[in-house]
User: Fold FdhF/YdeP family oxidoreductase from Paenibacillus violae.
Amino acid sequence: MGKTKHTGPIKLPAKPDPKLWVSKVPFGLGKVKPQHIRETAKIAWQNRDNLPYAYRILTQGVCDGCALGVSGLYDQTLAGPHLCTTRLNVLRLNTMPAIREELLHADIDELSRMSSTELRQLGRIPYPLIRRHGERKFSRATWDEAMDTIAAKARAIDPKGMAFYLTARGITNESYYAAAKVARLLGTNNIDNASRICHSPSKTALKRSVGVGASTCNYKDWIGTDVLVFWGSVAANNQPVSTKYMYAAKRKGTKIIVINPYYEPSMEQYWIPSIPESALFGTKLADDVYQVNIGGDIAFMNGVMKVWFEMEEAAPGSAIDHAFVQAHTNGYEQLRAHVAQQDWTTLEQSSGLSRERMREFAQLLARAASAVFVWSMGLTQHRFGTDNISQVANLALLRGFLGREHCGLMPIRGHSGVQGSGEMGADPFSLPGGDISSAVDRSRIEQLWGFALPSWQGDIVGVTLENALLPEEQERKLRLFYTSGGNFLETMPDPAFVREALTAVDVRVHQDIILNSSTLLDAREAVVVLPAMTRYEQPGGGTSTSTERMVYFSPEIAGPRIGEARAEWAIYSDLARRVKPEDAARHLGCGSAAAIREEIALAAPSYNGIQHLRERGDVFQYGGAWLCEDGVCPTPDGRGALLPIELPQLRKPEGHFAVTTRRGKQFNSMIYSDIDPFNEADRYDVLIHPGDAAPLALSEGEAIVVYNRFGSMHGRVKFAEIKTGNIEVHWPEGNSLIPKGVYEPHAGIPEYNTAVIVEKAETYHAHKDTRYVEKRIEELEIEAG
Assistant:
């Protein structure tokens, strides 16, 4: 895709720059901020029983936290060691001992009283478990007993009633590939993964706009770009090492812009522990913050383009890179006409920003010779997520910010395994190196694998859960649900529905390293728990793909092993051989990690090179430094598509707030503290602007109820610098407010935003059994469903 190769890490400036300091008070004493030294000491104490192994994981393995791609303590962006508290918090999952037997086989009601945090802290799952319908405890099972139970069910049902799901928990490309192949060998296309729930609109939009499904640039492109924009992304919290890249960018004169409903403290300033100057005095990160309404990004971007086209009328060439647009895009005139008909009043109301603020941002980008746009779930997890991302692509194409140094489009990944998941074929729309809807890709994979693929369209995981409640006669009724990690009770909208769906499945399989609240739910016939290895334990090592398309090799690391745990790819292979022994013998392969990598290189052409990764530190980047290099897109005509994007109907009735979910001190659904170190918010604090609280007579810390027709949440008022008319609640605590069954039409991502009423708790409870509340609920019927 690109001919230029990544040039490797660069050094940070040696001299400090006091202009970037937050405060001359050392270590930010007295400020609300993460306490990195204290946190590191706490984590070292947690791992005291296995410190040598913990050290080897940190210095030899590829980070199983976020997807920045740190191998050992080093990456491809900056010279010097990198370590963050996210990686340190995840470390204990790899070093803790097995769960004690008296706890593992305790009464299920006793275990169910524990939170997922408490269950995680019990330790690793040491051997297979089974709990049949009516039994109150897990029983130890042999591998043969457990696998035969699953295989018998798989043989007995229509493959359309079987589904697989893989989370992002340190899962390697090898495991994703084996799962994708095994699912199709067993006759089902119902396979999905955590990446698709987070970033499927990114892949879908980028493919339709510029022909690729991944970041077009590198982290190095942040350093020295004129403008670095974070859109709906709190990288400082979710990918802490990225603050080091931001520091390097600031030292090169880059302006950092944040677009988010909430003025995120961690994106404004940060104390970066691995840079002495920043650890002592902090670093000012954001140069400006544009606080949009939840869901107001499309209007904001239409406003920016409207300013550009107005600038062009006054002075041609002042805003649009016409040479790039004419040589490398289609649809310019249609987009210009579409934006021209947008009226400023509607754009201001929808975006929540004034015309003047939109003009400021437009002029900043118009003056810039380069820019990188970075985004995350603040843009993707909407019912119009794909349109959000295509709007970002429109901005980049109009300015020529694509296919060259310091320019690009980057959907930043939150987990180290997820970039490779769809590229390995582990979702209902993908095959290794292609799309299941493509006749060419289907034929190519069928020829390589030696068997016919299922011809029907598989379901996304949200629909899979809904299928559990279908009538018995329906062929797609979910009867066997096989999950590798994941906790749907704490990740999907409408937890009450999720509980009902999971308990309605005949046989539910949890392939995991720890217990969580979903594992403990009943099933109609049996719950089977299979102990998995971490990536550091897997024989032959494994690979993962970073946000910037770096494919890293993580070796098997010597150390203690947990009971009977097995490599995840090996468990999938075992299942195939038990369900279809003859077909598996002829076609499966997947006999070792190295053999899987050899096959990946054939199945996914862009991954040619993965077969050569064998030693610690081995890495290659597929596609070159920049996808769409020199503006040439891998589309049929080599051009990007400028797409007119309509404003979404935000559907916020009078007296309601737009609500979205936010992360605190957590990694995915794994919560590590009840208090957010950046703003001191409790997990049940509701972030609300003081100006919105005053008319409701709400004071800081007061008990409130947030509710709509989907559910309710009890919380407390937390004053915050959030856009008026919007509130934020923590995820997953606020999931009860989010409707099920609302999916983005192009990519199938669940929406995690809706409209709610906020009331004093005493008012809510005083009237909850009267027609007053019934009337308020009726008002919500016009809300998004």
About this structure: The radius of gyration is 25 Å. The longest strand covers residues 712-719. The chain has 30 helices and 29 strands. Confidence is low (pLDDT under 50) at residues 779-785.
